[in-house]
Design a protein that fits this description.
Mean pLDDT: 93
Structural class: alpha/beta
CATH architecture of the largest domain: 3-Layer(aba) Sandwich
CATH class of the largest domain: Alpha Beta
Shape: globular
Number of strands: 13
Order of helices and strands: HHEHEHEHEHEHEHEHEEHEHEHEHEHH
Length: 350
């Protein structure tokens, strides 16, 4: 399990000194002392509650670096959580991620710091929508992006991540696949796997003879904001910048970028490649977190594009979640078992 050493500290001066060194250009100086005190209180509460904090790559820098024991993308966090013996999991991410942690770790107490941390993409499709798709296209396998709620996962044949989607689709060995709910991810993966994207009502049931993705009009409200013009503008001003785009971005953006991958893949790309300058087309906070760990790299980002749901998770709310043991995540067992089966099939295909 890849843990974060500074997140074990309860010493305010130690945490403050670390923040002064690594976050001084990202966090206003007058906030650093306050955030260090909050972090020390959270780290002390973790010990008292036998808890571990899972921090998504989109968390704000002080939380991500000073209190998150395990950091990564949503699926990696859930997988690593199974390797810890802590009784309580605090998921600093959005609701569907905390649900996934509970699906995989049913015997742990899973807390989410804010009840307002939803997701526009996950909310774009309901369990009834999936059931209607299955009625309309009987026998066609359903691939559900991990960015969905538990009840939707329970209706799917298999889940996928942005990095595993093409491989999961290929493993099904089927010409026609229902791929939900991200329209842009569907279009990007369809291009990679040689399929055509259609939407419900555009083709006969089963789509015989066609290599087809039956997609859904779901989108991430952050990633759909990025456009090709953003890339062109940056390349004019910063011609050496390497452009990295998340696969939830529009296909034209992904095609214009130098690299497209999951949040973890983008982080690795910056760490492993020699370029000095990068432009990230994803949630702005992740760029801040990369900057803190790679001070020799210049990471450009568009901080007008923030996820309002991820921003609901604060140090104050994380402290309150541990102090009051509040906002526990529950998944009904009949749904959990079926959702876990779709996740297990994804993991088996990795």
């Amino acid at each position: 399990m890849n843990t974060n050493p500074i997140a074990q500290s309860t010493d305010v001066p130690v945490i403050e000194a670390w923040m002064q060194t690594h976050l001084i250009h990202l966090v206003p100086e007058f906030e650093i002392r306050l955030k260090a005190e909050l972090a020390a209180q959270i780290n002390r509460l973790k010990q008292e509650r036998d808890a571990v904090i899972l921090g998504h790559n989109y968390m704000e820098p002080a939380l991500y670096h000073a209190v998150a024991d395990i950091r990564g993308d949503s699926l990696e966090l859930c997988r690593q959580a199974t390797a810890t013996d802590r009784r309580v999991l605090v998921f600093c991410g959005v609701e569907f991620m905390a649900e996934t942690a509970k699906i995989i770790n049913p015997d742990r107490t899973v807390l989410i710091p804010s009840q307002k941390a939803g997701c526009s993409l996950a909310a774009s499709i309901t369990v009834e929508d999936v059931r209607e798709l299955k009625r309309r296209y009987p026998g066609v396998p359903v691939v559900a992006y991990i960015n969905t709620y538990a009840a939707v996962k329970a209706e799917a044949d298999v889940c996928c991540t942005s990095s595993s989607a093409a491989r999961i689709v290929a493993s099904l060995n089927r010409d026609t696949v229902i791929f939900i709910p991200d329209e842009y991810l569907a279009r990007n993966v369809a291009r990679e796997t040689g399929k055509t994207v259609i939407f419900p009502g555009q083709a006969a049931a089963g789509c015989p003879g066609a290599k087809t993705f039956i997609a859904w009009h779901g989108k991430c409200e952050v990633h759909e904001l990025f456009g090709v013009q953003d890339i062109e503008d940056v390349r004019r001003q910063f011609p050496e910048a390497v452009v990295l785009a998340h696969p939830e971005c529009p296909p034209a953006v992904v095609e214009a970028a130098d690299f497209s991958g999951s949040t973890s893949a983008m982080i690795r790309y910056v760490q492993e490649h020699p370029a000095r300058q990068y432009f990230l087309l994803t949630e702005c906070a992740m760029a801040d977190n990369i900057i803190a760990e790679n001070p020799e790299k210049e990471v450009l980002r568009m901080c007008s594009h923030r996820c309002p749901h991820m921003a609901q998770i604060t140090l104050e709310d994380t402290r309150a979640a541990l102090d009051k043991m509040q906002y526990e995540v529950h998944v009904p067992e009949n749904i959990r078992l079926r959702a876990k089966a779709s996740i297990d099939r994804m993991l088996a295909a990795r």
